[in-house]
Amino acid sequence: MTTAAASALANYPVEVDLQYPERTSRLLLLFRGFLMIPQFLFAIGVMLIAMILMFLNYLAVLVTGRSAFAGYLSGALRYITRINAYMYFLTDQYPPFSLSDDANYPVRVIVDKPGHIHRWRVLSSFLAAPHIIVLYVLTIAAALASVVSWVTILFTGRYPSALFNVTAAAVRYQVRVNAYLYLIVDRYPPFTLS
Asked: In the 3-class helix/strand/coil scheme, how is 154-178 assigned residue by residue?
């Protein structure tokens, strides 16, 4: 990581911690999609509420300069990140049906409480366009890495560390971009995969 990238992340208000799994269950790998059905149903409800609150949050920032629903939106971001990590095989531990932080879960998203957010940030969707393009490419890379990892895990029981790093970088990047779009952070996300 370059010095500029390290300094950009040093005080960034979103931290994503993904623990590398020493072993991955081959049996669980085969049934993961089936096990995710209840999670997807719960996620639909979480995201419907998040979309409504995100719209209201944009209005709150426009009027008051403060994020009104940062707690729920941070929780939704945390929950969706845990689902993504589970679906990308980054963890074998089943995601909890919770929006709160769990110090024992191997995927953690910590978002600092935002202070004042500039009213012009309601244009953040346009400002995030370069990040959305990068995220699109990273998502494709993570999907390809997951397919290769699935086959590798099936034979070896281990997630290749290089592929883990690619997928984890995509997940971290997605969290930072989404936190910016939800208006729950007051800083532009850095262009770094760390």
From this structure: HHHCCCCHHHHHHHHHHHHHHHHHH
Residue with tokens 């971009």: 177
For 9, residues 6+ apart whose C-beta sits below 8 A from its C-beta are 190, 192, 194
SS3 for 99-149 is: CCCCCCCCEEEEECCCCECCHHHHHHHHHCHHHHHHHHHHHHHHHHHHHHH
Helix, strand and coil content of the chain, in percent to the nearest 5, comes to 65, 5, 30
DSSP 194: -
CA dist 34 and 73 (Å) reads: 27
Q: What is the pLDDT of residue 113?
A: 87
| Cβ–Cβ under 8 Å, residues 115 and 138 | no
Q: Which residues of the chain have pLDDT under 70?
A: 1-10
CA angle in degrees (0–180, nearest 5) for 179-135-16: 45
Contacts of 158 (CB under 8 A, 6+ apart): 22, 23, 24, 152
Tens digit of each residue's pLDDT (9 = 90 or more) over 66-88: 889 999 999 999 999 999 999 99
pTM for the structure as a whole: 0.88
What is the reported pLDDT for 9? 61
